Amino acid sequence: MAEVQNGSGAEEKASTVAFTAVKPWLVVDAPKASDAVQFYKTAFGAEELSRVMHPKRKADHEIPLVLSAELRIGSAIIVVSDLIDDSSATVKSAVTGGVICLETEDIEAALAQAVDAGATTEGEISEGEDACCRGRVGKVKDPYGNIWLICSPSKKCADVEA
Amino acid sequence: MAEVQNGSGAEEKASTVAFTAVKPWLVVDAPKASDAVQFYKTAFGAEELSRVMHPKRKADHEIPLVLSAELRIGSAIIVVSDLIDDSSATVKSAVTGGVICLETEDIEAALAQAVDAGATTEGEISEGEDACCRGRVGKVKDPYGNIWLICSPSKKCADVEA
């Protein structure tokens, strides 16, 4: 496999750090995080595990802001938060608009459920050619600027994750 | 738990779709995806599972572009791609700059390894208060505009993921 080395001189060291969880974090324009959480429940069957609100409601906030909410989709966890630029926010400078790939055996049902919840389709279902989505893949954009790829499970991925 | 209902009327339907994998997808400014993959190997011990290149090298591309590369960090998979705006790209309109939370027992070692690889620290290690990072949390920004939260495992998360 052709690889571009970055010449940092550090690439020969093996990582000595073990990571026990990897969670994508979606930052949405405040104060839409509450709505986004509800949307992900409806669109993707997400289960809300916990939510921490902003410690105080500022005068210019009509509704309380979400510091972070943890959602479970399948066996994975994602985090959703309002974009808050003060010292209480763990993530304060991120741009909004992420991309998450969801694998499912039933792409049509998943897309229909997401659109029914308010997502918009982006193009047609196609044959994916990339490393993540070698089978069929559809795309939706949620009302909060994030893109969701709905893919059939790739054999390679399934082998790895089994 | 206080919840804001969005009034769509659809929230009472249980999801009938099962999702078997959730993969955050990081889009970086072309042609930096190859460098980013190498960085994630060095910084986070990522293992490259597969890579698909852009089908043809355009005249104005000095190095080939990455349609997508799958990397394993711990037991999770992330996808990295160059931002490519043509029909071959699965993700072509995403903004760059994502946020991913990594849990580890050894935050100091993880931060040191990431910084040694070229990441920049964002603030000090602090006591997290949000739903994802209730223990200690440090932050780095990678050279490609993505933010990585390095957190101690939260008990609640560990219970869920066990």
* Number of strand segments of chain A: 9
Radius of gyration of chain A: 18 Å
Oligomer: homodimer
Question: Which pair of chains has the greatest number of interface residues, and how are they split between the two chains?
Answer: A-B, 93 and 93 residues
Q: Approximately what portion of the residues of chain A adopt beta-strand conformation? A: 25-35%
Write structural notes for this entry.
- The structure is a homodimer of 162-residue chains.
- Chain A has 162 residues and is an alpha+beta fold.
- The first copy, chain A, has helices spanning 33-44, 107-117, 155-161, and strands at residues 19-28, 47-53, 66-73, 76-82, 99-104, 120-121, 126-127, 136-141, 147-151.
- In chain A, strands 5, 6, 7, 8 and 9 form a five-stranded mixed β-sheet that branches. A four-stranded mixed β-sheet of chain A has the order 1-4-3-2, covered by helices on one side.
- In chain A, helix 1 packs antiparallel against helix 2.
- Chain A starts with 18 loop residues before the first strand and ends with a helix.
- Chains A, B: This is Lactoylglutathione lyase glyoxalase I family.
- Chains A, B: GO terms for molecular function: lyase activity.
- Chains A, B: Residues 22-153 form the VOC domain.
